[in-house]
Structure formats: structure tokens, C-alpha cells
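Human: My hope is that you can spare some time for a protein that puzzles me. I am handing you a single protein, as its sequence and its fold in C-alpha cell form. Could you go through the record with me and say what the backbone is doing? Take your time, and here it is.
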Amino acid sequence: MQVPVQVKPAVWGAIGGAVAAMIIGFAWGGWVTDSTSQKNAGVAANAAVVQAFVPLCITKAEQQPEQLEALKKQSSYSRYDTVIKAGWVANVSEKYRRDVADQCGAAVVEAMDAAAAKKAQGT
């Protein structure tokens, strides 16, 4: 079978255009592979769970004021243990417990620092 002479450049142009479109799409167009999409969805889901449970943890922390000073005295790395031992994240799945405890401990201490600064400015 004879292929007309005009077809060969058109086919190579289409192949080159497809390759260029893929390069531009993945590099600048925001295209992602399935595995990257699933990874990003997992990260977003984890963040959503943490954001949902941190306010509940803070509410439980406010109900135990005797634990708050102990939490503030600890380093940011060991606050996780205090939050877990106090039972503020007992209702959180083990998979998300550490992230929720870290965020909760940081939020409680940050709120205590802000309240102390506000109180100092008021006096």
C-alpha cells in the first residue's frame, strides 16, 4: 500500500504535538498521575480529620485546667504524651491521634500565651 507523501509530515506533526502537549500538561498544566492524586487526597482527608477533632480536644482541655499548666511547661515534642494521657483525644482513631494531639497541644499553649500577653497588656 502506498502512503501519500503529505501524510508522513502530518503524522510526525501529530506525534510531536502529542508529546509537547503531555510535557506542557504535566510540567505546567497541573496534570498529575493517579498515584499522586490519591496521595494528595489522603493528605487532604487527614488534614480534614485533624481540623475536625482539634476543637473537641481543646474543649476537653478547657474542662481540665489542672492539666493545662503541666502541658505548657513541657516542650513541644512531649506535649503529645500529656494530651494522650489526659484523655483529650481518646475518641480519635489511632491513625489520626498523634496529629490531633500535636495540633491540640500547640493550639492550647498558643491560646494560653495569647491570653497571658493580653492580660499583660491590660495591666
Q: What stands out?
A: The chain has five helices and no strands. The chain has two domains: 1-31, 43-122. The helical segments are 7-27, 34-62, 65-73, 79-86, 94-122.
